[in-house]
Amino acid sequence: MQQQKRSYLLLVFIALLPFSRSMAQKSAGQVPAPSEFLKFEVGADRQLADYRQIASYFKALAATSSRLQFELLGKTTLGEEMFMAVISSEEKIVKATQSKGSQIEP
Fold it and tell me: What domain count does the chain have?
């Protein structure tokens, strides 16, 4: 079970790598490449980023990019923060945030 979770997280992380470089720039600074941030080559044998490392990287991206919105969804069964990273254009992120704020809670 734990191995499947790690494999899934690694797959998600690798799938999002192309987006990370294009959205990592903002006037405040630039986030390092995933390999620089994690201090190991992503995809190398016997090297996997754990859930906390991946969450830290997405938090760093969100702090420096207006194209990524980091949203906490709750807790996992292991007590970790469950999150969602929304990657889109700046305009769509702003529009989604505005429309979410205008919804009426039941």
Answer: 1
